[in-house]
Design a protein that fits this description.
The complex is a heterodimer. By secondary structure, chain A is α+β, with helices and mostly antiparallel strands. Helices cover 20% and strands 38% of the residues of chain A. Chain B contains no helices and 7 strands. The chains are: A alpha+beta, B mainly beta.
Chain lengths: 157, 103
C-alpha cells in the first residue's frame, strides 16, 4: 500500500523532470559565435537594418606604402537639413586586431557630412565606411586596400 | 599634460573646414617592449569639436587611429573670428582642450 504515490508528489516529479529537460536543452544550445568578422560588426552597428551601397564615398589609397598612417576620408551625399541628414559615420576594417576603427556623430549642424583622419592597417584588407542617415537607413562603401609596410609590427617605427 | 593640438579653421564659401593635429602616442596594446611585455593600450577614445559652444562633431576612436592623430571635418555657418574648441579624452582619463579662431 505504501508504493502508491499521492497526486501532489506526482506533479512535483513531473515538474522536476521538466526542469531537467529544460536544463539539458540550454546546455546543448550552440554557444553564440563571437562577432569577430567584418560583416557581423557592421550588422551589429546597423542593428540588423539593411545596409545599402551608394551615397557614401570612402576615399583611401588603394596602394598603401606605410600602414601606420593611412589617410581616410568619408564623404556622404546628403543635404544635411534637420529632416534629412547623416546622423553617424563609422569605419570598419577586415583584418586589424579590432574591427572598429572610428565612429563619428554628426547632426544637421555639421552642414557637411565629411570627415578625414589617419588610421593604421595591419595588412592588406577591405575597409568599409557605413553612414547612418537620419531616417534610420544605412549606406556603405567598401574599398580593398593593398598594404606594403604593415602597422602593428613589433619594435618602434 | 600632453602637448597642445594644432587647430586650423578656415572659411571657404559657406563652409568652415577644420583641421586638427593632436599629439598622442596612440599605443595599440599590440606591441611588445624589449622584455617581451605587452605595452598597454593608450589611445584617444573620444573627441568633441564645438563651434560657439555648440557641438558640431564628436568622434569615438579605437587604437586603429594613427599616432599623433589627424582629424578634419567641415561644418556650415562659421564666420571669421568665431571660436572652434576641440577636446579629447584618452582611455587613461587624460584630457586636453584647445581653442582656435576661424581665419
Amino acid at each position: 500500500m505504501n508504493d502508491r504515490i499521492d497526486p501532489a508528489d506526482r506533479s512535483r516529479r513531473r515538474l522536476l523532470a521538466l526542469a531537467a529537460g529544460a536544463g539539458a536543452w540550454l546546455a546543448v544550445r550552440p554557444a553564440r559565435a563571437a562577432p569577430d568578422d567584418l560583416a557581423a560588426a557592421i550588422r551589429m552597428y546597423a542593428g540588423g537594418a539593411d545596409v545599402r551601397g551608394g551615397g557614401v564615398t570612402l576615399d583611401v589609397p588603394e596602394l598603401v606604402d606605410n600602414g601606420n598612417s593611412v589617410p581616410v576620408t568619408v564623404d556622404v551625399d546628403s543635404p544635411m537639413t534637420a529632416a534629412d541628414h547623416v546622423a553617424a559615420i563609422a569605419i570598419f576594417n577586415e583584418r586589424n586586431p579590432e574591427r572598429d576603427v572610428a565612429r563619428y556623430t554628426l547632426g544637421p549642424r555639421a552642414g557637411r557630412a565629411r570627415v578625414s583622419t589617419r588610421m593604421r592597417l595591419a595588412t592588406s584588407q577591405t575597409i568599409v565606411a557605413v553612414a547612418r542617415m537620419s531616417d534610420g537607413s544605412y549606406r556603405s562603401h567598401a574599398v580593398d586596400v593593398v598594404v606594403v609596410l604593415a602597422a602593428c609590427i613589433e619594435g618602434d617605427v | 599634460m600632453a602637448d597642445p593640438m594644432k587647430i586650423r579653421a578656415t572659411v571657404a564659401g559657406d563652409a568652415t573646414e577644420v583641421k586638427v593635429l593632436m599629439s598622442h602616442e596612440m599605443e595599440t596594446g599590440q606591441r611588445k617592449d624589449a622584455q617581451g611585455k605587452t605595452i598597454p593600450a593608450w589611445f584617444i577614445q573620444s573627441v568633441t569639436a564645438a563651434w560657439n559652444g555648440k557641438t558640431v562633431l564628436s568622434a569615438q576612436w579605437g587604437p586603429a587611429i594613427s599616432k599623433n592623430p589627424f582629424l578634419s571635418f567641415k561644418f556650415e555657418g562659421g564666420a571669421k573670428g568665431d571660436k572652434v574648441k576641440v577636446t579629447w579624452i584618452d582611455n587613461k582619463g587624460e584630457t586636453r582642450t584647445d581653442e582656435a579662431t576661424i581665419g
